Amino acid sequence: MGSAAFNEGLFAFLSRATTPFHAVEAMAEALGAAGYTALPEDRSWSLAPGGRYYTTRNGSSLVAFRLGRERTAGLRMVGAHTDSPCLMIKPNPDLTRHGCYQLGVEVYGGALLNPWFDRDLSIAGRVSFSCQDGTLGTALVDLREALAVIPSLAIHLDREANSGRSVNPQTDILPLLCLPGDGEEPALRALLEEHLRDRGLAPAEVLAYELNLYDTQPPARVGLQGQFITSARLDNLLSCYTGLRALLDSEEGEPGLLVCNDHEEVGSVSAAGAQGPFLRSVLQRIAGDGEAFSCLVDRSLLISADNAHAVHPNYPDRHDGNHGPRLGGGPVIKLNANQRYASNSETSALFRQLAKQVAVPVQSFVTRTDMACGSTIGPLTAAEVGVRTLDVGVPTFAMHSIRETAGSEDAPALCRVLRAFYEAPEPLFPGADSRP
């Protein structure tokens, strides 16, 4: 697949995947179309050699895998996360103040808040409701239209706005939805119930929801030569899509797995997160408990794919001078001596070898020693499962902003390396049995 076609598919995925629920729905549909069989977690699994399967948890995390002819072969695993920093709508959100109807929100993850001002916002997520017959129903919703905005305070009323404005997340980022007339009492639940009825559902009452705001501006290829892509949720849906395409486009001789976890941006401690039991339970059902599981894990490798910080030309001093990835320079191996990333010399060498085979340049990132280092699902999965792990990512600007920027060639390049990884023959680490 060429870069243009890859990015076109990525843009379609980003536009649809406005929440982790919608991301998993889109990936499940692509897997089903490619012949992967859905496996409900609450049923017994009957796995056949060479079979292709996927399962989901909470509707927001997914594991897809294909088996080799030999059940003892190691798994080539790619991991990413489905969630992104955003504004979540509170359970009792309705506010009418000074003639304006607004919603109460809370911040999910480490979001950059200033870019949320003056954007055209919509609402998406999961809604649970009672039906007319007394049963419970659940549906994904995406209102798609620009329904809300968070207006900035004019500079005339804040003369220090360009030098010292801070954002109070309780009071400053309440989105504006309408100007209600006399006697009107707008309510989010009523809006949701109307939307569900328009879709042919029959809600008696919306009982609960998980909803977030998102920017309606579509992804774009920008720059004088089209060398950048800009979009919401590049961190980390770009990696989800890249891993999915690599799995589906690779030759199927070797066993492979894709895991996309929710809740990375808030610590991963959940039933569906990387520090939860989801991946381990799938691997145990593939291999069995005890010694078979341990052997499978030791023969396997996880590549954790999560965006990396590119050197911002306006802030080059925020990087170590020898470890500043560039946009357009290829995928980045992320390293940290204190295990904030799980890469080591073995896993890094294998990735570099695979990249060389497909003519993809590789960069490295080490944070400045005097700055705190972020982390990924890599170390968490390594600790939870015990699998060798590598942390890589596509270099990115404005990570955790409402709109992020990456190079237009870097995700396709990472996809080529991941495809080579999925196709790599046994053993992944030649000579590993002779290690001391």
TrEMBL record:
Q: Which GO terms describe its cellular component?
A: cytoplasm
Name the UniProt key words of this record, in alphabetical order: Aminopeptidase, Hydrolase, Metal-binding, Metalloprotease, Protease, Zinc
In the record, what terms sit under GO molecular function?
Answer: aminopeptidase activity; metallopeptidase activity; zinc ion binding
Q: Would I find Hydrolase among this entry's keywords?
A: yes
> What is a biological process (GO) this protein takes part in?
proteolysis
What domain of life does the native source organism fall in? Answer: Bacteria
Which cofactors are reported in the record for this sequence?
Zn(2+)
Q: Does the keyword Ribosomal protein apply?
A: no
EC annotation from Swiss-Prot or TrEMBL:
3.4.11.-
Q: Which family does it belong to?
A: Belongs to the peptidase M18 family.
What's this protein's name? Answer: M18 family aminopeptidase
Give the species this sequence originates from: Pseudohaliea rubra DSM 19751
